[in-house]
Amino acid sequence: MKALFWIGLVLLILGVVSLVVPIPRHERDGVSIGGVSIGVETRHDEKEPPIVSAVMILGGAGLMIAGKVRS
Q1: CA atoms in the 13 A half-sphere facing the CB of 62
Q2: pTM of the prediction?
Q3: Which of 12, 24, 52, 61 is the most buried (most CB within 10 A)?
Q4: Average pLDDT for consecutive 10-residue bins of the chain (71 residues)?
């Protein structure tokens, strides 16, 4: 099952990258009163918690091993 290996590799790479690169998030809030609309846009750069990255790395490594054993 080469697909398991490649999915595991992608998951492993995403897990390592999520430790270093922050994920940008945009939020738009606003109030509409009558014909007037007042809006605020905020931007946050947040990193994933380390436990999420660790789960992604371990899951990716596990899938890579499973993919190599079955092929």
Answers
A1: 7
A2: 0.67
A3: 12
A4: 89 90 81 82 81 92 89 62
